[in-house]
């Protein structure tokens, strides 16, 4: 009896493990990654339920298969050996299960979506895998499944109620950059929910530190910037990034075009908040920032940077705060804007830019700068 019991437990373990692996491979089938709306843009509006329209993430691609639209990933158990009668039956059962699962998913899925929508029970199983597994490939697959489902508003609430926020946030401590990126993407999709944002704010400092210290232009850094952009859509948590604004300007100056644009979207959120104007002006900026105006930089980068400067100029009450202007240190954004002649020369460097919109924005920026920062000079 003792031997039979051991054999039974071993068999049960194999079946459970096989089912978990099959579940992961089935749940992670989807289409190509869609860009997150909130991370790709600046501020967005919360809907009546506290959600913003978030994008979907899917990192699985079947491009190598010409007929991938009608195929599912089938996991065969270890005992389904080719060439044996038992193996043939086991493989047939596995294919039948995959077909039934695929049809069931299609019935529950949105008519306009090919993504797999999981039930609360299935989401709980995936969260258990994230919490218990130490295998990077299992974590990656499970996080992709969660990221797909976190794109749906109703699933964001379910994942939160299942305790998924701290479970996913725990993965931020991993050293595996691929797994960390997937965890950041899941949190990014979840963060477009107002209640989720309030619970995720305790991780903002960690995400911020990881983002500024990650390898420049890496996927982890970009995923972190997108999450911080989502978390600063409203003014509620922006003050938590006050001490990192100088680091963001450093990333903007040193990063590639994609990093620059993502940093600008984050700074644009901050610049639209009057309460953050002083913190932005206090930030230390690289000396290379002015060089952006001396060459034909990307049009979108120039326009966004000018909008940020305009918002700061509009939100900071220069006359009311005149007694405190001596508190700003050399090398700060305040001095960059305060030195009107130097700033004007730099802006004039792109006055001959071929794009008409850039010319208009430059003229508007210089007019506001003269009006608000130097009202006495006009007398």
UniProtKB/TrEMBL annotation:
Residues 34-69 are annotated as: Disordered. One of its GO terms (cellular component) is mitochondrial outer membrane. It is a single-pass membrane protein. Its main location: mitochondrion. It is found in: Mitochondrion outer membrane. The chain crosses the membrane at residues 6-25. It comes from the Eukaryota. Keywords: Membrane, Mitochondrion, Mitochondrion outer membrane, Transmembrane, Transmembrane helix. It holds the Pfam family Arm_2. Residues 118-337 form the Armadillo repeat-containing domain. This is Armadillo repeat-containing X-linked protein 3.
